[in-house]
Protein 1
Amino acid sequence: MKKEITGANPYLPLWEHVPDGEPRVFRYNGEERVYVYGSHDTIVDEYCGLDYVVWSAPTDDLTDWRFDGVCYHSSNGEPLYAPDVVEKDGKYYMYVAEDRGSNIYVASSDSPTGPFADPVLTDLDFDPGILVDDDGRVYAYWGFCASFAAELNDDMATIKEGTLVKHMVPHTIPLDFVSDPDYDHIDSTYCFFEASSIRKVGGKYVFIYSQRINKEEPQNAFPAHSNSYLAYAYSDSPLSGWKYGGKISYNCGEIYTMPDGQKDRAYFHCNNHGSIVDVNGQWYVFYHRQTGTDQFARQGMLEPIDAVVDKNGDVHIGLVTYNSEGEPVSHAPAEMTSQGAFTDGIDVCGILSAGYACCIIPAENGERAYIKPVYEGYSSPVVNIKSGTVVGFKYMNFGDISPKSVTVKTEGFIKGRIKVCVGAPDGKCIASLAGGAQTAELNAKVTGKQALYFSFEAENKDEDICVFDTFTFDR
């Protein structure tokens, strides 16, 4: 019996839509697990939902996620935005973003899975991120288009007098509702937007946030006002002295070149929120992507990364390059993949939903296929596929012995041809399905870890070719 692959990227089931994940490692009842609390896109036609849920995985297997239940409900029927949870002195504190993030409460529990109760209004604002430092002092970070930070009192809710810092790092765009006569410089480096998160790496304070690019970046295939990147700054102090570090990850896929020579991204631009976490000595970045045609059905993603401090005290996070002596010298954003914690690639002989695609190149007529949001069942299909659409997966593990055939499950008759390629969208073609066939023999051997692409072709450029549901290979 073939196994349906789960725990890839997105790491939660495809029917679950939990963005804004702040991963936390907690030891509870003798077991160490990674916990994620999200704002839960369940309203469908706007951001977020009316409850927070908890998912967790053992630290030795980030492909094995468990639903730990609902931990908090909206108090007034208004959506809950991004939360954060920290532990201090054996108690767990959830920073709850009521009223679409305009009122931040702190609720508490004796368990990392909640329920979190007895909410108290705090002095904080939008997208709070909390740090319980090594000495027990607590710091908070928050803001929308302008960043703020402060030390908290022992009540975990109010700001300690004299510690509030305004515009901790420069923001990127002047908005009427964050205008400030003392701050009129518009930054093109830090570009703070929202999604404050705080961590420590090698003794350094690392401030992670969503970056909004003010100007178009054709070389990176970013339009103006894109906020797909997570970026970071770092310091020796929790409230001052920040230095820009760079970009950690993005959620809009690889760069590809269109027929007219222009560059574009192979996935949708979408807002972003996440953080980094050290799990048994391996760092990961958690972030989210969009599904559907809007930003109201987002899904949690993760990628393994490096997070190191060099001999000069600079922090490198992402895909780090080392010199011949093993010293970090540069870094680049982590690649967006389908594999997530399956670092050797996803087993091609399992059944994989098309919803794990990390690359969706538009059709010849300019239309883009997309992953259809689902709220039950296993698979999340790719729909609106027309001639020229490419759907890609990075990366698949073909093993040491080449498979003999590939089976593509579709909804509806295949009106055209599907080319199966490895390495690149126009890479080596290993199979072709046409005339409605859903199984084809491989015409070339393929082994090891490979990027896999399905290219769809038809004579009618405006007709739907099929709905792409799942695929598998057989030996």
Protein 2
Amino acid sequence: MLTVAEASERILAEIRPLDIESVPLRRALGRVCAEDISATVTMPPWSNSSMDGYAIRSADITPVMSGEPVKLRVVATIAAGEFAPRPLKRGEAMRIMTGAPIPEGADSVIRKEDTDGGSAKVEIKDARDVWKNIRPAGEDFQRGDLLAKRGTPIRPALIGVLASTGVSKVKTFMRPRVTIISSGNELVEINDFDEVVAARRIVSTNSYTLHALTRVAGGIPVDLGIAADTKASLRRKLESARDCNLILTSAGVSVGDLDHTRDVFSALGGKQKFWKVQMRPGDPVSAMVSFELFVRPVLRKMQGHTALFRRPVMVTVEEDVKIGAKLTHFLRATVTRREDGVLVARLTGHQSSGALTSMARANALLIVPGTSPKVAKGSQLKALMLDQSLEETSVFSL
């Protein structure tokens, strides 16, 4: 029986990034760059003002530094997107808006609040902005600079950077198509919920959670529905998945008379790399836990990511934690941050393998090694954060 780490290593060993496709920039969010991208222009292309105010020559306001106001003649107004009509001369000022190009000869922009706001002549009252409020040409990047390496995730800020250098399409790794197959005569879709009300069937929850997890991980879910507990039914489902990059099945892999997944998979030419892993819980929560541990890294690698795994965090448990079997347990928990900054964890309730509500309440998986059958309150364990809720708050605070 493999450890979680050993199983993950075997799964990922033969996974490679998918083919490359070119996508419009507005649709590239969340994708991964499949090539290095360099700047085609310098940005900003000219020195520009970071303030609404007056462009001046520092030599003209030397008296202001000693507390004596100076008046300058206003000879032009430069709006963003416009250029000065001529160089700035001695004793002159030009009104300038944020983002507007700095006129030749100017070396400072005095903010409007430090003047009398004059339109023909302006009185400079404070010299605190001498040699300031000018963003130099190329401050952001120079032509030829590397903006994104192959393997860089495309986030909102990078979208803006690529737009500024004229990139309208981005070469990215393709998103994996993921087939989802549930099996079991006891399962129905939501449309047949009358069967659930009549206590004859249960909803195929795994197909819904795996569909959602696949989407969040960047994959394209293809739900083929529920396979009956027959080899023929399962074989039809698997054969329908040949155009997908990955197949996720749930149930049908134990040793019962109706567990056909391994036999049918083998008959179709599949090779089994391993079967059992030293971990808990079991179905249906295991479908979500197994996805986080094994499938999510696969989908990320297929999409060209290099950071494949969630980073564990150290937490202090706020209650005694007990486990049964000597297996690594991934317990559903909520992790919060105390006022002193310490991360603390508390279980979300019943840890039964069938208790899906406790998974819905969790924002983390608390990792309890099989060597620790009992963990005392106040002890430290590792946890895998499942979302960003730890960093969110209902109160604005800086």
Protein 3
Amino acid sequence: MTPELTKLNDRIKQKEFLLGVIGLGYVGLPLSLTFLRKDISVLGFDLDAKKIDMLHAGISYIKHIPSDELSGFVQQDKFSATADFSRLNEPDVLLICVPTPLTQTREPDMQFIEATAHAIAEVLRPGQMIILESTTYPGTTVELLLPILENSGLTAGKDFALAYSPEREDPGNPKYSTAVIPKVVGGINDQSTRLACDFYNTALQTVVEVSSTQAAEMSKLLENIFRSVNIALVNELKILCHRMGIDIWEVIRASSTKPFGFMPFYPGPGLGGHCIPIDPFYLTSKAREYDFPTKFIELAGEVNTAMPYYVIQRVMDALNHRKKSINGSRILLLGLAYKKDVDDPRESPSFKLIELLQEKGAEVLYNDPHIPTIPPVRKYSFNMDSTELTPKTLTDIDCVLLATDHSAYDYQFILDHADLIVDTRNAFNGLKGAAEKVVQA
């Protein structure tokens, strides 16, 4: 190990290093807090000036990150944030937690990783460690990130350490916080792997070492492709069960009693979140370089992408049964977040549902107790505020469409006042009056 990396190793073991986190969103901010709780100072980087101002004021913009705790670290000068990327040479360890979206043609969009790499390369110094956490295709660290960083004149694995460790955040899950979720780590060489493992061991309970950055990158994709394929399977079975007059939810409950060989997945209106709708296509794109068609992945993507269209057809059929047209009907969509009890709308199928309803002439309102105003997102621009759930609101609506089954909803109250409900989450099952008013979708 070179003298510079030996010094870094000593600082990590003594927990006297400065951590830099690039991208203070749903991955970067929880990671920052996890290390702050272990008395490690953090300097955050983000291009969003509004986020920087809120953090300096000790205000969290993510629901499950407590503002009072964050404010305490700010007041102790343990945590600060900046939009000045010329300061990237200050931290000893840099975590890259920037978005990796898809282009309009479903190809990997690497612009944020590339821009971050160039910014680091401009000020990179010997003895730093760079770890990519953004989900991406196998080979990104060594094929894309490494050459850009070495434009600094420094050599990866010798002058600076370089590794990959996929984020495994599950927002809103009280059982699995960042600190207790095992961390997969792979470096470009033995020294980088060892340093990265030692670094994560300062704040996390379990570190899982793999042989390469490519193995670590692939492990993240496997996790999310596994979910995508199984969700597609149960979504397809849901459609079949509707035609056959079988309750898919009852079937899942029955199958779940098997103590081995079965894991329950649940249908819904489509996929949401930053990972599952996007990550499989990162591998699909990379596989083309090897002349390998990823049939299961692409088929799962087709099934899941089609689900919002199926849901809208169910809404149309339900209205038609009541001699109403979707054109001119007032539809109240419940739940904008991509999953229950979180304030994260990224890639939520609710956006597609709103778009499809509006295209068919419906007047659309929405309610989400965690998202009072629809934020701007990459694909959609809806200027809408959450509608209060009152008896009059529900009575005046032609159809309630449940997209996200938040725990905060009083489902019996909604059922008592609404005339028609299309339920994509089985949330109204068993409630008084459900048989007359609720249509499964």
